[in-house]
Amino acid sequence: MFRQLATYASVGAVATAVHYAILVGLVEAGGWRPVPATLIGYVAGGVVAYALNRRHTFASDRPHAEAGWRFALTAFLGFCVTYMSMSLFVERLGAPYLPAQIVTTVLAMFLTFSINRTWTFGRR
Question: pTM score, two decimals?
């Protein structure tokens, strides 16, 4: 399990880089508000995470038709955590968006790892 968590975190770093690049680009260059920008970034990072986690983290033999919708549902849960956390930290508490996003990312990572490990990509 430690190896899987470490690989999940490494894959997450790549997906997070995509997410944060979009977040920062939309906020700083596009003038977007942080919460909608982070949700767009989250979806893009999720596409990267699915492909890399399926192959490298969990080496799943579950068909895409089955794993895909499970991953999407799990990602939606992470999306909701991201929305609620960022709304709380940035819009209600006035926290800077990047530190708020770092805390949010860690929260979502632990939640989604557990679900993806046992349900999305787990052995049939």
Answer: 0.80
